[in-house]
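Attaching the record inline, Q. Sequence:
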Amino acid sequence: MADGAVGRGAAYMIGASFCFAIMAALVKVGAADVGPWAVVLVRSVVILGIGGALLVRRGARLRFIDHRTLVVRSLAGFTAMLAYYLAIERVPLPTAVTLQYTSPMFVAAFAPLVGERVTPRMVGWLLFGFVGVVAVVEPVGWPDAGAWLALASGALAGVAYHAVRKLRMEDPDAVVVHFALVSTVLSAPAAARLVQDPPSTQTALVLLGVGLSAAGGQVLLTRAYHHASAALVTGFGYSGVVFGTLFGVLAFHEAPGWSQILGSVVIALAGLGLARGGRA
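Structure, as predicted:
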């Protein structure tokens, strides 16, 4: 693969991670005013509108082959998103972002359940990664609900990624629209709160920013995997942990301790090792 293609893929992946870190910071601000459910609703509506416009522009339709896997992908993705937003509301931003990036570990952990082979080295990387999880969560405390929610988000994202792999024959834009549609319907009850107690102009802009940054991150992520293989660009995705930590420190004064920094590095190394199929 040409070095230029890898470079572009890496740049897109870093850009995607930056967008997702902005999204997380805006979620923390927005959830404090209107609650996580309303944030999920607005994000879903924005992505539904953008994804729907892309489908209309291409003249494509919402036609699917594997309906069962599609439902699994959308429900797992919605639940992962909600758990992540609830976690961001409860724990420091660097902790929530780092634990959400455990999803590659859960992809590997769930692999035997879908008939995929797991090598001994992958098991080693997996165990190594969970050592990092312990280091990140220790300062917060294991009984903390926010830490468990962030981990649950990573696990559910792992389920969603396995489903996405099985949906390779589907139109990717249509899959995104289906996910956004399901998320909009499931979070629709939050609309009642927004109607009864409309957000301020500033909060409304924050919520819009959540949707736009999430959509931008998704577009850049797709382009990253288009230009280079997952094994080559996934490591650059962990720049999101750095961005999330910086936003946590600068915007919310949530400086991580040495244990959390070390744990973040361990999780990133484990994710990179797993992305390369367990190779050292």
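The chain has 13 helices and no strands. Residues 3-275 form one domain.

More tomorrow.
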